[in-house]
Write a structure and sequence with these properties.
Length: 237
């Protein structure tokens, strides 16, 4: 797919920064919808969902406007990837952003070149390719079903609440099967480098929680020290 096939929503209350982002993205051929506040963005989302959202955290008088926007997006059945841009860099803020489904959390002032590369990588992994053989991959784990072309996964017949990035990470476990170790490098590669090494555990925690919503006693994804993670029933060990 070409960049012209994608629509990106930019939510930034600073007019100069908003225009800078819009210009940089449009120069790459993307369609861009820009908003100065959360309410106008949500009104747009209720009518049309973009392929990607780039948002500041502080929007006008709303100190957590970006976070509230992410909560609104979670109400849709279709996972929409989010990149947060913010001067707020506390561990709590970064954790909160990822916990709400953000793919990335970049510090301001941002590097436009880095942002553009991340946007392209992200759209590459969250847009299903008709010619991609991965669309036909099956799960090697009992009771876990995956639909790569729709970024959906089912546990005991019930759909898991996952972001597109979390789905890509879970798919690695489905392919590896029970007992197979999914390395840190594999998890990063599965997201085209969108997920940083130091945020992998946060995403794994969200994946575990998605399973626990269906089976509260879920305990099958384990850390393999220095290597990565495995899917295994270790209760008898």
């Amino acid at each position: 797919m070409q960049n012209t096939d994608y629509t990106i929503a930019v939510i930034e209350d600073d007019a100069i920064q908003r225009e800078t982002l819009v210009t940089a993205l449009e120069q790459q051929g993307f369609h861009v919808q820009a908003f100065a506040d959360r309410v106008s963005a949500e009104t747009y989302f209720d009518q049309t969902l973009p392929d990607l959202v780039i948002s500041d955290i502080i929007l006008g008088q709303e100190m957590d406007g970006g976070f509230d926007l992410a909560k609104h997006l979670l109400s849709f059945n279709q996972p929409i990837p989010i990149i947060f841009l913010s001067e707020r860099q506390s561990e709590f803020d970064i954790y909160t952003g990822h916990a709400l489904g953000a793919i990335d959390y970049l510090p301001k002032p941002i590097s436009l070149n880095v942002l553009i590369v991340k946007v392209k990588n992200l759209l590459r992994i969250t847009t299903p390719s008709k010619d991609n053989a991965a669309n036909h991959e099956k799960s090697a784990i009992e009771n876990l079903e995956i639909e790569p072309n729709q970024f959906k996964a089912y546990w005991h017949g019930k759909q898991l609440d996952l972001t597109a990035t979390e789905f890509e990470m879970l798919k690695q476990f489905a392919v590896a099967g029970e007992g197979g170790v999914v390395t840190y490098d594999t998890l990063q590669s599965s997201t085209q480098g969108v997920v940083e090494r130091n945020t992998i555990n946060t995403h794994i925690c969200r994946i575990r929680n998605a399973f626990k919503k269906i089976t509260p006693d879920f305990n099958l994804i384990h850390n393999e020290y220095g290597r990565g993670y495995s899917w295994e029933n270790k209760q008898e060990n």
